[in-house]
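Board notes, transcribed. Complex of a protein with adenosine-5'-diphosphate.
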Amino acid sequence: MTLGITMESLTLGYGRGPVLRDVDLAVRPGEVLVIVGASGSGKSTLLRAIAGLLRPRDGRVVADGAEITATSGERAMVFQDDALLPWRTVRGNVELPLRIRGWSKARRRAVAEEWIARVGLAGHEDRLPRELSGGMRQRVQLARALAGAPRAVLMDEPFGALDAQTRAGMQALLLDVLRDTQATVVFVTHDVDEALLLADRVVVLGHGAVRSVIDVPCPRAPATGAADRAGLRAQILKEL
Ligand code: ADP
Ligand code: MG
């Protein structure tokens, strides 16, 4: 059920020059692939193409042998800024993609409640987004993304606007929920330490291309391999 995603000779851009040129990259089924790069290097652009929100100028993105040409519930997105519907409650926001998929009300309700509890928001089901802190809103986004059991989760600097302590809590929560899902994850960040905490592999973007793809040994085990990690960190920072 996990999804592999392949970028083939992908060129992306908006107006004049391309933002990314001739990208060949395969996201392995079930891995956490983290994309890092300086601001403006094309991280969001690449994620948008994988989501089906941006048509390639050249080349293609393929999932399960089929070219991605539109968004799909199979590929859930989580954004940095709060993409929740302000007039819907926590429950209403989490249930929305399930409703779009045509799930029965009872099933929607049960799965939404399970995920709201999973992200630590039990008891807050009837609150509106404006009544929540930034960290709580990102928890709702995470619950909404995962409730529909997507085959891939695409995350664009989801914790970028949070204070350090809240961010660390969200990283721990994400690691926790990812242990129970088979979803393939593409995670964008400009934070190298966040990348090394989460990734199986780190892709460094720069100068309109993929600069390098780095394997992370012992992913998601911060207690081990601290020396390795320092080396990787230095390597990534050099590429950036
Ligand atoms: P990153 O996410 O790495 O900060 P982006 O992918 O957002 O970078 O942007 C890459 C480049 O594309 C930047 O030069 C940016 O100005 C440009 N860009 C991004 N979105 C648009 C858009 N909607 N229209 C035109 N140019 C854009
Ligand atoms: Mg961006």
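The chain has two domains: 1-74+152-240, 84-149. The mean pLDDT is 93.
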